[in-house]
Known about the structure:
Helix content is 66%, strand content 7%. It is α/β, with parallel strands linked by helices. It has two domains: 6-209, 3-Layer(aba) Sandwich (Rossmann fold), CATH 3.40.50; 261-441, Tetratricopeptide repeat domain (Serine Threonine Protein Phosphatase 5, Tetratricopeptide repeat, Alpha Horseshoe). 35% of the residues are buried.
Amino acid sequence: MADKNPIERELSKLDEQWEDFVSADQAIFCWRIKSDEQQLSKTFVRLKEQFLDDSSDLFIGLHSDFLNEKDYSFEITEEMNQLLHEGFEQAIRDEQQNNETAINEFTWNVVDLSGYSHGHHALLDNCQRVLDAFGKFIDCLVLVIMPNQVAHLDSWLQWWRDTAEIHKSYDLWPEKLKLLVFEIDAAPHLSSVVDEYAEQFYCANSSSNMKQAIDAILENADDGSPGAKIRILINDMQYAVGEQNIKLLQQCSETALAIAIEQSFFEMAATVLMIRAAGYLNAQYFQQAVADYQQAQLFSLQGIDKEIPGCDKLLLQSQMLEGTAFFSADQYAEAAACYQKTADLAAQQNNTMIIMEAWRMSSFCFERNKQKDLAWEDALKALAAAKELSPEEQQASTLPFVGDALLRVSPNVESEQQITEEMIQLLGEDWLEKLQEVKAAC
């Protein structure tokens, strides 16, 4: 590993753990990672998906939302087939562009989902058909189960329980099929299922150390300058936030702030304060968080005066987060004022998404304070901003929550009917149903 960079060394550790799993008898790998290793795990999967020359396992990352246990297996079967088709088509194009002899188009007997009453049966049958077609080229077909969101935790656990039970009790599981799921080690939701089905699940904590890797990168880049020193301290601060180590966070932040102020690094001073405020917020030190966000705004303003790039965005973020700190402390009037101020600043910066979100949160604060008229006014402003977004942005935004708030605080039935019609026009007939699913996942 001596010739590898720090990130590559951590990926090599994951490779070794993967080989340990493959050599074991279990078919499902529950891989527990630290919160700061999520990006590393995604990188590991993306590299495996490329199926490079030194790889013998075919990885397929499946990201469909988990909405319920009944439909999920059908949905990831469709996603799997689509990804395989796209991958094989790209492989053919690559060989043709390189003036190589094009490989024959890979095909397999794709399952007809309408012929199955049970999604697991369809998924496993499809995997077997893929292996029948391509199994001689690979050691394992690996489905990486990593949904973008899980709507119902109980249903999610039941899906895994059903999966393990099928492997245990029925002769349906393809010999070369492996499943991989990542979990955050601080919140291992699958623990009960893993314990119940120990012969099906192989469970291990990640052996990687992202903090060590980032430290090494920063150490290699350390030229002795004040900026390099602050970057090292910021990395230590971020680690302290994740570990909820307030003492370390305070020590690093004070040193970093002193250097930033001495060097007039206003953007770094604001960044340091915002990271520390996030740590205070996580620890429920709300007033300390408010004070740091307010001070971050002062440094951001100084940076704007000096025309330092990025300080305008830092000002907007720190204003919005000051509102979050007040809201978390149940100081709704103060939070509303912050959100309104943020909406005005976002308008000056032409940031429509933040305009919508700030007015939405201001409305929510007034609703919490039982000021429905003011809540209605600000929710309407959020809706007006949302109408300026593209359809794609609307679908990915908190617009459904804006609509939900408007229905809660609407002054009369006519207004409620009008809002319902507008939301259907913007998001579709099922917008409220989807919102309830998201709420259930929170």
